[in-house]
Design a protein that fits this description.
The chain has four helices and seven strands, in the order H-H-E-E-H-H-E-E-E-E-E. It is of the alpha+beta class. Helix 3 crosses helix 4. The protein starts with a helix and ends in a 7-residue tail after the last strand.
Length: 166
Amino acid sequence: MRFDFCTLTLCVLALAATSGHASESANIPALVMTSPNSAFANYEDKCSNGGNLDNVNREKFLKLMLADKKSKLSQLKVALLNEIKQSGDEPRGEGVRIGEWNQTFHDRSGCGTNTNSYSAFVLTVTGGNANHTVVKSLVTIDDDDNAGKRTLKIRDIRPIKLRNDN
């Protein structure tokens, strides 16, 4: 039984070392904002087969945009918070939440060129015990890699009006 446990442990460690989680901890290059709505990072691997598209820099890009008052994402958040305030409702938590990001476009040409888009819903959350959550917008960002030069930018923000229950 000991041999089986050790073999299993080695297999698990080998899988962890080759999974996407290992590449997330690799040397991630600095992200440079080129405008309030775009950024780039230069990766060493010019033929990464999508490996340069790490979550670390994508999440950093989103945080930097939210912190910049001139970015479209920050302005959307401010506008939605003002909408909550004008309605007389109380924000729950931060009041505006960005949902999970999902890949909504992917095209790969060879090993070094990837064009991708990711989209997420932006919601307002209000109320105390009576929680009121409404999807207000769909945000799409482009996340492209061209031979190691990764560019991120806002593609579009579309308003969504699903329901208007008061």
